[in-house]
Design goal:
110 residues, mainly alpha
Length: 110
């Protein structure tokens, strides 16, 4: 059950047991690759594990989440943060503006 793996991955992530979280979220994505929450968690786990050293892999998961749901504000903000971390400021601002265009009161957009 993909949701069971996701829930356990969330538990491990919140407990900072990142290798286990990574394993379970990977299994969840293998069972249901259409769930944007799974891709967002995978990106969060990779960031926590690698401290931005695997930005292309993190970007891949965030873009998959956005591809599945182009209005997902959390995915857009996380991708903007990733672009900011690698000093791609123009793309970061474009993404944040897209979020604020959807919802000017979205706190993470600021």
């Amino acid at each position: 059950n993909a949701n069971a793996y996701f829930e356990r991955a969330m538990y491990y992530f919140n407990k900072s047991t990142l290798d286990s979280a990574n394993m379970d979220v990977t299994k969840a994505i293998g069972l249901d690759s259409n769930n944007t929450k799974f891709h967002l968690l995978k990106a969060d786990v990779l960031l926590a594990l690698n401290q931005y050293t695997k930005t292309s892999e993190v970007k891949k998961y965030l873009e998959k989440a956005i591809q599945k749901d182009s209005t997902n504000k959390d995915a857009l903000v996380k991708l903007a943060e990733l672009h900011m971390a690698v000093k791609n400021y123009k793309e970061s601002i474009t993404l944040i503006n897209a979020v604020l265009k959807q919802d000017k009161y979205f706190p993470k957009g600021y």
